[in-house]
Each structure stands twice: as C-alpha cells, then as structure tokens.
C-alpha cells in the first residue's frame, strides 16, 4: 500500500463544540484510514486563553492565540470554525477560503445572515464550505436536503429547532409548570443560558429556519427574512386549553414555498397531538419536510450539545477529506439558483387561538364576534371557559385569515372597554 | 455560458418504481440544469412488453426489449436498475459496471445478498453504485449513515422497515382487528401483495436490515445473516395485553454491534408506547439509530410507493451526475472495512412476553416457574389474566435471557400435560 496520506486541519475555537470535535476526532483515530483513505490530524487550535485550552488537549503545543498560525500554514487544508458569533468568525472564514482552505462550520448566526457571501467566496476559490452542524445539531439535514431529496420540489418544512424551548414547553405541558419556573429549571439543568433571549424569543430557531429554507427551496432566505415570536407569553392555562382541544403547543419553525413567495417564521403553535412533531419532547429537535415525490419525512435527534454537534462537524470534515482525495472540493456549494420574494408576514394566512377576559354581560359576545367579522376574520369556534366574578374567559378559534386582518381585529378589541384583557393569541396549525 | 451538458441514462424496468422515476425526472426537467449544471436525458428503457410500456411514456421510441441497446450504448453513462429480483438484474448490473457505466438501484433483494460483489465490481471499474432507495424507500438513510454520521461508532439500529406489516399491526392495535382481517384490508388497499409472504414473514424487512447494518457497522451483513420471524402469529389478544402493559407491538428490525459480534434480526416486539417508534403508524417506516457522538436519531417517512421510492432513486442519479461532472465517480463505495462475526441467534439476549393456557390447579404455576428457573430464565412478572373453565391464561415476562435458554424452557413447557397451549412468545425491548 502507498504511504499513508495525512490531511491537516486547523480549528478556530475550543469551547463546547470545539471540545466535542477534538474528542470525536480522537475516537475516530483508528477508523479514519480504512474509512476515508487518509488520516486527519488536528495541527493547530486558535484559542483566547492558551493556559485554559492547553489543559484540554493531549499536546499543548497545538494551541495558539495567533490566527495567522492557521491561515498562513500551507499544510492546513481544512479549517473548522467553532468559535461562534459573527465577528471575527466571518473575516477568519473568508481569509481561510481565500488562502485556499476548505471550511467547516457550526456557526448558525453567520450562515443565516452571510451564507450567500461565504458560499460565493468558497466557489471563487474552488473550495468546500460545509455547515451541516448549523441546523439541528447532530441531526443529518442539510446533506439529506441538498442530495437525497434533490429530486423533490420541497413545498414546506416545519420543525422544532430549539431544544431549550422544547424542554420548557414539555415541562409546562407534562407537569403544569408556568414559563418562569420551567425556564429556571432549564437554566439549572444547563439547557438554558443565563441570558435566554436567543432561545426563548425564537431567534436561534429563526436562524436555523433561514439556513434550512434556503437549502430546501433553492432560494436564499436570511435570518432577517424570518418572522420570530417567542414563548415567553405562553401560560400553563393556554397549554391546558390546547390539551382539551387535542393539541400540543410547540415553538415551531415553519417555512413554505408558495406561488406568492416564501414564508418563513418561528412562533408558538397549537398542533394536533397525533402529529409526529407533537411527540418530540424534552430537548430533542425534529424537522418535518414535505416534498412532491417523497411526501412527508421527518428527521429527529439531538439539536445541540457537545458530542451531537461534533458528530455533524466531523461528518463534514470527513466529507471534505474525501473531496480532497478525489480532487473535487466545491462539488456541492450554494444551491440557491432561484430568487423568490419573501412574503410579508401580514400576507401569511394562519388560524388563531385567542384567549380573552370579557365583561360577563348580555351583548359582549356579539360585539366581539362583530369586530372579528368586520375585519374579515371568520370564527370557527367560540367557547366560554369560565367566569371570574364580573368577567368571563372565552376562547376563540378562527378560520384561516390573513395575519394583517387578524391584527386589525386585535387592535380594535384591545381598545374596547368591555374587554378586560386579551390573554393570549397563538397560531394553530 | 458554455454549451449545456447532457448526461444520458438508461433504465432497466418500467414497473411501479420505474414509472415513478420517469415522472420525477420529468418534473425536475427545468430544475436540473441550475441545480446540477447538466441535464439528464432518459435515452432507453428496457421493458418486457413494448406495447404496454410505450403507452406510459411520451416518446415510445425510448422503450426496448434488448438489454444490449443500453449496455452497448457508449452515450449512456448511468443505468438505473428498477426491475427487481436477483436475476437477470445481477448480471445486467455487473455488465453495465464492466461497460464503464455508473449504476443506481432500488433492488433490496440484490444488495442484501450480493452487495459486496457489486460494490467490488464498481470499485474495479471506478464507477458509482448507489442504492439509497433499497432501504426505507424515500427516507434518506444510506447517505446520512455513510456521510453525515461517519464520525460515529454506531452501536445499534432499530426500525420499522416494512409498511405493509406496520399497516396491519396498526389496524390490529387501533381497531382490534385480527391478523387475517387486517391482512385482507391491506390487500384490498393495495398495500399487500396477493402472496404476502415476503412482507408478513419479515423477509423484506430482513433485507433492509442487512443493507443498513452493513453501512452502519462498516462490516458486511447479508440477508442470510439476519434472523427473521414474521407477524402471522400475533393476535388481537397479544396486542391488547401489550397495551395494558403500556406497550405497542411492532415488527422491528434490530441490529447491534457488540464485542461478541453483530446481531441482526427481524421479529415482532413489544416496545414502550412512549418510544418514538411506537407512534409510527399505518404504512410509514422509521429508522432509529444510536451512535456514540450523535446519541439517538430517527428518520421517518414513506418506505415504499411509486414517488417516494423514485425520490431516492433520482436523488442518487443526481449525485452520480455531480460525480461525473467533477470526475469523481466511485468517491464513496463499499465502507465495510471491518470483518465482524455474526452472533448466532441463540446467543442473543432478549426479554420475552409469553402467553399460555395452563391447568387451573394448585401447583401448576410453581411447575411452570421451576421450568423457567432450571433453564436459567429469570421471571420478571407473572400474571394470571383470566380463567376459561379448566384452564387459566397466564402471561410471563422474563428478564433478559439468552435465546437458547429460553428455547430450552419452551420446549420442556410445550411437552408438559398441564400446559394446554403456549399461545404466544414475543420479544420485549
């Protein structure tokens, strides 16, 4: 047999994901050669604190604080960016591609906003830029969409893209906890960060929706195109009422390719408890895709975490290694060859669940109903749930309406003295 | 832009899957060029009945009854084998590979038994042999395992690999039907064939387990290595008792990579109703995989049918097209670089559910218990379910035991006069 081929890689960052990548590469040390026909060697890791980092690796001489040690090393053929955040990650990635290196990343913030620009730089340089880990962590999804499902017109995707919020909603649903208590539990268990904004406001999920919608619809969708709404206003009461209606409340990312443009949004939603996504609990993620040939398909697993995310990153590294050996880097780059408009959120049609406290007297229900009617919102169901002294709690389920018409109705209802409070408005699948 | 590159393909067969491939290629006609950088043209289709086939295609001149029209046409770079069965498919595929063509197939019978030989022929000729459609139809699974999850030691896979039997079990579970009635319904609805043996005896699922286990464990598993047991003996009573215990009965394919060798088997099994596979109903398939990095992951969708299967076949065709354009055919071939022994089924450990009718008198239970005990079968639970005159129905749940010890106990129990009938023995996950 010929001499063993060694492919050298550099890594930017040694946080949770970087440590995972380090561990997974180590655990695959024996398998790489027969699996790929080459061995992968981690030559340099860029870190902020050399002392702290040195303690995490077998050979402390591989850590450096100088990016140029990686960018200017001609032996390094693949750079793994796992530092996160937009800058300096963006500049580093572009510099590496321009230096003729292939790049693998787990950075959803960056790909969701700058994917087009980075993929163009990769193409210009004839290099790979792979980002499987940026959506749904360890779950294989980008490659399945770009390759296995390439023969489909994918019309819709829907998924649970954030494990923290799914954990919170699961606790609220299974144990009747309120949002604040469930969030504190998630923080105690290490699922939620001290500042949980990106998770609970749907921003993290929105980034993943943008990246996946771009791959699924072959048209660029950026994070800025995604409407996001979080779960902070969901109460245990909403979840209880949803259950009574045979539904579960999930924070869903939804994107559709419609003749009027692409819809992309993240918000809490009532879905039928028999839907496969309804049974995805705890911190698990899942993505449900519909294509004209494959029909419905779902991908389920760990959307975050050290080793699951590293599974996806190292899978990408192995793919680049194969491409290097076969001299076909850049084989699958940007697949956004369409240019579809983005539908404004007001034009999207949704069904709504509305819970409100209204004056408990003759004529109030009729007034509420007429506000809906005057704003082109058709009511599918109206239920009086309970009476609290002077006020009654009612739940209205609407038919499918344009969101702007619904907003108009809500604004008027919000200003009416007979309505004490609009407690919740949640979309229904 | 340079002249449009056209890649010509030939197809062997125009049955259900072939017709689906024809339709999907047509529906992708506009998208191919921007997606792949080339157009795919179906130049010839090998059929048995030219008249019948001609009615299915726009241009009847593309159908032929002569294999040589495809094998000897130097313009044809990809051959799609969707005729099914072992011969002449095997000889045709080998002839095409030796003629320097890439091959895509949906043929599970062939890949499960002859995968190694065909992949060796592909390698010898530097060509692609892709078979994504041979496992779980439209569900992306072979490529995810070989690429996305390549950084894992996959330790276990478990799945619902056959839609017909899952439909039958779903009807038995949801509507209390007996096996025979559910099978007839499946036949009336076109889910089951007139001779349902391959489905209901677990052979079809066994072939898929062999193919997927080979990819997952990087060691060749053939259909002959897979223990198979069907669902014909499952009764509505078993399903009812399983439900009472919080379980669902599914026909599961299970494969494990253990230090003593690879286990591969298909049989009915009780699984916890909260397990993600328990909620996979009707004719859907799903595959659950466990890896050391990714942890648990599941893939769900349509495991059969014209268009879902064609989705996988055309996805493979598109991948070959990209490989042709990048001059890297053969990039990912056989990944079985390990040679693990296959564990004999008697050495596999399982828990069992046993339902039997025994004489309803003092001492019988003790005798039954001692037979189990004498054969190293430890009992986890023993329940008396009902009394029918002279006989009592009991259910025994065992702890994990070696299958051969369990078989020994069953043989002795079967010969005891105080036991009227051993009604069911079903494994428990």
From TrEMBL, chains A, B:
Top enzyme class: oxidoreductase
Protein name as it appears in the record: Homoserine dehydrogenase
Keywords: Amino-acid biosynthesis, Methionine biosynthesis, NADP, Oxidoreductase, Threonine biosynthesis
Classification via SUPFAM superfamilies: ACT-like, Glyceraldehyde-3-phosphate dehydrogenase-like, C-terminal domain, NAD(P)-binding Rossmann-fold domains
Keyword Phosphoprotein annotated: no
Pathway field: Amino-acid biosynthesis; L-threonine biosynthesis; L-threonine from L-aspartate: step 3/5; Amino-acid biosynthesis; L-methionine biosynthesis via de novo pathway; L-homoserine from L-aspartate: step 3/3
E.C. code: 1.1.1.3
Family: Belongs to the homoserine dehydrogenase family.
Origin organism lineage: Bacteria, Bacillati, Bacillota, Clostridia, Lachnospirales
Cofactor requirements of the protein: a metal cation
Catalytic activity as recorded in UniProt: L-homoserine + NADP(+) = L-aspartate 4-semialdehyde + NADPH + H(+)
InterPro entries (alphabetical): ACT-like_dom_sf, ACT_dom, Asp/hSer_DH_NAD-bd, HDH, HDH_cat, HDH_CS, NAD(P)-bd_dom_sf
């Amino acid at each position: 047999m010929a001499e063993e081929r060694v492919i050298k890689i550099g890594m930017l960052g040694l946080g949770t994901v970087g440590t995972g990548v380090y561990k997974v590469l180590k655990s695959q040390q024996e398998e790489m050669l027969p699996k790929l026909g080459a061995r992968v060697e981690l030559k340099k890791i860029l870190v902020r604190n050399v002392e702290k980092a040195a303690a995490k690796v077998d050979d402390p001489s591989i850590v450096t604080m100088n990016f140029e040690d990686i960018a200017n090393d001609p032996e390094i053929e693949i750079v793994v960016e796992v530092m996160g955040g937009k800058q300096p990650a963006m500049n580093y990635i572009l510099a590496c591609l321009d230096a003729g290196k292939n790049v693998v990343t787990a950075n959803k913030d960056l790909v969701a906003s700058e994917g087009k620009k980075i993929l163009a730089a990769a193409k210009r340089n004839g290099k790979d830029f792979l980002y499987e880990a940026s959506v749904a962590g360890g779950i294989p999804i980008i490659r399945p969409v770009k390759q296995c499902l390439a023969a489909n017109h994918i019309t819709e995707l829907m998924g649970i893209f954030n494990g923290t919020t799914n954990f919170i909603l699961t606790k609220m649903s299974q144990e009747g906890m309120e949002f604040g208590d469930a969030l504190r539990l998630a923080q105690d268990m290490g699922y939620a960060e001290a500042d949980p904004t990106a998770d609970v406001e749907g921003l993290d999920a929105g980034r993943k929706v943008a990246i996946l919608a771009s791959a699924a619809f072959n048209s660029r969708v950026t994070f800025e195109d995604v409407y996001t709404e979080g779960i902070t206003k969901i109460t245990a009461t909403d979840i209880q009422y949803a259950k009574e209606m045979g539904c579960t409340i999930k924070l869903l990312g939804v994107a559709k390719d419609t003749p009027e443009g692409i819809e992309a949004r993240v918000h809490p939603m009532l879905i039928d408890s028999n839907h496969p996504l309804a049974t995805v609990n705890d911190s698990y993620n899942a993505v449900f895709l519909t294509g004209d040939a494959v029909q419905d398909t779902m991908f389920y697993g760990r959307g975050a975490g050290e080793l699951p995310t590293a599974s996806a990153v190292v899978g990408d590294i192995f793919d680049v290694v194969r491409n290097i050996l076969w001299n076909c880097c850049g084989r699958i780059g940007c697949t956004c060859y369409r240019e579809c408009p983005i539908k404004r959120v007001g034009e999207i049609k949704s069904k709504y669940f509305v819970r409100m406290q209204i004056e408990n007297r003759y004529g109030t229900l009729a007034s509420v109903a007429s506000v809906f009617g005057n704003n082109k919102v058709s009511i599918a169901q109206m239920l009086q749930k309970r009476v609290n002294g002077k006020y009654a709690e009612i739940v209205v389920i609407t038919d499918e309406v344009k969101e702007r018409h619904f907003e108009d109705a809500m604004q008027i209802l919000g200003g009416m003295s007979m309505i004490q409070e609009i407690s919740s408005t949640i979309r229904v699948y």
